[in-house]
Amino acid sequence: MADKSSERKTEFKTTVDGLPVKRVYTAADAAVRDEDLGLPGEYPFTRHIMPTGYRGRLWTMRQYAGFGTVEETNERFKYLYKQGQTGFSVAFQLPTQEGYDSDHPLAAGEVGRCGVIVDSLEDMERLWEGIPLADVSTSMTINATAPIILAMYIVAAEKQGADRNKLEGTVQNDILKEYIARNTYIFGPEPSMRLVTDICSFCANELPKWNSISISGYHMREAGATAAQEAAFTLANGIAYVEAMIAKGMEVDSFASRFSFFFAAYTNLLEEVAKYRALRRLWARIMKERFGSTNTRSQSLRYHVQTDGFTLTAQQPLNNIVRVTIQSLAAVLGGCQSLHTNSYDEALALPTEEAVQVALRTQQIIAEESGVADTVDPLGGSFFVESLTNALETKILEYIEEVDRLGGALKAIEKGYIQREIASSSYSFQKAVDSGDQVIVGVNKYQVAEAEPRKILEIGREIEQKQAERLEKLRKGRDKEKVGRALEGVRETSQSDQNLMPALIEAAKAYATVGEISDVLRSVFGEYREPNIL
Amino acid sequence: MDKIRVLVAKPGLDGHDRGAKVIAQGLRDAGMEVVYLGLRLTPEQICDAAVQEDVDVVGLSCLSGAHMTLFPRVVELLRSKGAGHILVVGGGIIPEKDIPVLQEAGLSRVFGPGTRLADITAYIEKQMKENGRGKEG
After folding, report:
1. What local confidence, expressed as pLDDT, does residue A4 receive?
2. How many domains does chain A have?
3. Rounded CA separation A154/A151 (Å)
């Protein structure tokens, strides 16, 4: 028998901070009890949440897009729709995400860059021109200003003639991970949690087909979390949201079926598949055992996946197509409900139309040529995958216990525990890349002299001026008294314990801007500054 | 001689701070004194802190595409406060064709994705030595 010295490395791991990987796995490693595995569609849903998997319906192919003016994004949306995309996903510019109008001094240089400009209902209406909101499903990556943007979306849809209770889509509305990784918070944790739960209970009552939250691990992974950390801290945040809703007096099964999740897909294919399987099993048990849920829909972890942006390289960008293919396979073999595939040029800039098309085609090839979607959980029963699923589950539970010990996710964030764990993982990853222990093809191995720069998408700097003029015209043209009354309504409601959504819908209807509404909320809730944890 | 003092900061509204934090940690491990100022800062706040902390280097990170507005503004403000000697370097998602424009505006160097920590450290140390400043050895 070959000894260790005949192997390429002294130690094999999924990633530098990941789990150990043995030479070979046998049935003895993969001991799974029936109650841990079950069948697809059956508790604890390890294998899939639906009995038919993708044989019934494929995952939703949902490309995240948004840049420049609403007209430019509207055009990209219509293009994607024509190319066979089945759901929309809106990227908003940073000023919109952080509650500033486009003509605010802090918005300088940021207008229309990371996403589409939405300052008011007027922009929201134009964004969806020619796209019937009654018939599509829309995901919106919006957090601190989620209640404002959701209010604008509802009003825009109703103005198109759509029925509120038929609207389908998702608001990210996951503020906790913003303090950990994504950093588009405005207010402190406490008022923010109130806004999150206001949306969740409003949706439970008025938007029955809407996902009121998308509890996200993706951004933590991007910030450097390992697979186990990503999964654990997301579930810990999920627990905090369920607890907050229960504290609001809601019964768990009245809202939890509209909770959805969002995870990354890295290139370590089998670890990612195991992660999704472990996540489904863990969430089902958390819901049933911790919260006493009796509705299998609340126990089913439904999730979106985005291939991981951090793994894209600026060097030899075409290699990214291969990475994205492996990552999408992980998402599909893992059983995701919707998927965004990154474009190969995204380490350089926002993607060009050509690059977006390749990304979408990657999903279509997996769906319609590869055959992996034709049976449910095709890797189930693999000695290695079952063993890794169990090992990840154990690791994830250890982290969740630590967060529990610290008093829950909110406290763990306030103490900087989660941020420090992630920062430490990201630093050790970088050191492993620098030393060559972690190979990144084209970056620290197999480098070439880079070819001429490729064509990238450019956002003109003149849109800042253009949008400022649009805002000025809007402010002049609207009914000032109505705006004033609506903003006063927002102020009064925010000082009470009433749900803020109805007042925000009135403000949206009056064409109050994102910045104006956010300013009112800032004056009541105050602003958050991150603690220095480095 | 004293340790090289570096301020690491993120101007603008961008929240992607993985790179900035890793670099802050890396420079610290390389023996530099690092002030990590955090994110969502105006160029004015960064400039004030750089002057107040009497740093040798300012490292800026931006992944949102606002670098062309924000990076040159930091250099401009430092110069207007008589702190034009401070070395300003930047990184993030910076298209190649923007780099000469940023250097023209006074950035000493722009580091793109995939840069090794050791290369950034070596660059800063070399610049400091040439300016007659830096740690012993």
Report:
1. 62
2. 1
3. 5
Tell me the C-alpha distance between A262 and A306, whole Å: 8
* ipTM at complex level: 0.91
The answer to whether residue A218 sits within a structural domain is yes
B-interface mutation test, from A16, A143, A427, A448, most B Cβ less than 10 A away: A427
pTM of the predicted structure, to 2 decimals: 0.95
Subunit contact A427:B68, Cβ cutoff 8 A: no
Asked if B25 and A222 come within 8 Å (Cβ–Cβ), the reply is: no
- CATH number where A71 lies: 3.20.20.240
Tell me: the pLDDT tens digits for A496-525?
999 999 999 999 999 999 999 999 999 999
- Angle in degrees, 0-180, between the axes of helices A227-247 and A417-435, rounded to the nearest 10: 160
| Encoded amino acid at A482, one letter | K
* Chain A CB contacts of B27 below 8 Å: none
Answer yes or no: are the C-beta atoms of A167 and A202 closer than 8 Å.
no
Residues B95, A108: C-beta atoms closer than 8 Å: no
pLDDT digits (tens, 9 = 90+) for A56-80: 999 999 888 888 889 999 998 998 8
Indicate whether A450 belongs to any domain.
Answer: no
Instruction: Write the pLDDT tens digit of every residue in B9-54.
Output: 999 999 999 999 999 999 999 999 999 999 999 999 999 999 999 9
Q: Give the pLDDT band of residue A17 (cuts 50, 70, 90).
A: confident
B3 CA: distance to closest CA in chain A (Å): 19
> Does residue B24 sit at the A interface (CB-CB below 8 Å)?
yes
Task: Dump the DSSP string for B116-135.
Answer: -HHHHHHHHHHHHHHTT-S-
Domain span at residue A286 reads 27-49+58-418
User: How large is the average pLDDT for residues A340-349?
Assistant: 92
The domains found in chain B, sorted by start residue, are: 5-129 (3.40.50.280)
Say how many Å lie between the first and final Cα of chain A, rounded. Answer: 48
User: B97 to chain A: nearest residue by CA?
Assistant: A453
Is the model's pLDDT at B137 over the cut of 50? Answer: no
What secondary structure does DSSP assign to B51-91, as a single string? Answer: HHTT-SEEEEEE-SS-HHHHHHHHHHHHHHTT-TTSEEEEE
pLDDT tens by residue, A456-468: 887 777 899 999 9
> Can you tell me whether residue A470 is helix, strand or coil?
helix
pLDDT band of residue B134 (cuts 50, 70, 90) is: very low
Identify all chain B residues contacting A223, using CB atoms and an 8 Å cutoff.
16-18
Look at residue B133 in the predicted model and tell me its pLDDT: 62
Average pLDDT over residues A170-184: 97
Query: Is B100 touching A (CB cutoff 8 A)?
Result: no
Closest residue, chain B, to A95 (C-alpha): B13
To the nearest whole Å, the CA of A455 is away from the closest chain B CA by: 10
Chain A hits for B68, CB-CB cut-off 8 Å, are 109, 461
How many alpha carbons fall within 13 Å on the CB side of residue A378? 14
Q: Which of residues 30-49 of B touch A (CB under 8 A)?
A: 36, 38-40, 42
Residue B44 to chain A, least CA–CA distance (Å): 11
Facing B15 at nearest CB: one of A184, A313, A453: A184
Residues of B in contact with A446 (CB under 8 A): none
